[in-house]
Amino acid sequence: MAKDLNSCNFIGRIGKPLELKYMPNGNAVLNFSIACSDDYKDKGGEKVEQTNWIDLVIFGKGAEIVKQYCSKGSKLFVNGKQRTRKWQAESGENRYSTEVVVNDFQMLDSKGDNQHQGHQSAPQQQNNHAGQGFDDFDDDTPPF
């Protein structure tokens, strides 16, 4: 069977305080949501804003970094894979949760953002592969 593409990218703001948990094996896990705002025009041509809430889960060191340097209102770029989990409620009935398992993320708040002053020395990116951002590029080329 061929592999299909399962890749999600979002930019949004964290919607509520973060609660980091640890699994029995000691691995960190962080479940949270980001708000992604969008707008469209209705039939009358009026602009309508809507917010979509994206449920996310991140594991390991990435979870600890997000918890340490981000808070409610922090702006993030996330990349991951959508998955649906099946679980049983206390009543015994099957329940389903759809979420995005985060592979990569980048904090997008500016260093001067008053809302997150305590997070100025935060690492800006977490990813599972080598690669440098534009901020790491050392170049003597003058601006245009």
Provide structural commentary.
There is one protein chain. The chain has one helix and seven strands, in the order ββββαβββ. It has a single domain (8-110), classed as OB fold (Dihydrolipoamide Acetyltransferase, E2P) (Beta Barrel). The chain has a five-stranded mixed beta barrel with strand order 1-3-4-6-5. The chain has one helix at 60-69, and strands at residues 8-14, 20-22, 28-41, 47-59, 75-88, 94-107, 125-126. The protein is globular, with a radius of gyration of 18 Å. With 144 residues, the protein is mostly beta strands.
Number of strands: 7
The total of helices stands at 1
Shape: globular
Mean pLDDT: 83
Domains, number = 1
Point out poorly predicted stretches. 114-144
The residue fraction in helices comes out at under 10%
Give the percentage of residues in beta strands.
over 45%
Short description:
By secondary structure, this protein is mostly beta strands. The protein has one helix and seven strands; from the N terminus they run ββββαβββ.
Question: Main traits of this protein?
Answer:
single chain; about 140 residues; mainly beta; OB fold (Dihydrolipoamide Acetyltransferase, E2P); 1 helix; disordered C terminus
Sequence-ordered SSE layout with sheet pairings:
Elements lengths: L7 E7 L5 E3 L5 E14 L5 E13 H10 L5 E14 L5 E14 L17 E2 L18
Parallel strand pairs: 4-6
Antiparallel strand pairs: 1-3, 1-5, 2-3, 3-4, 5-6, 6-7
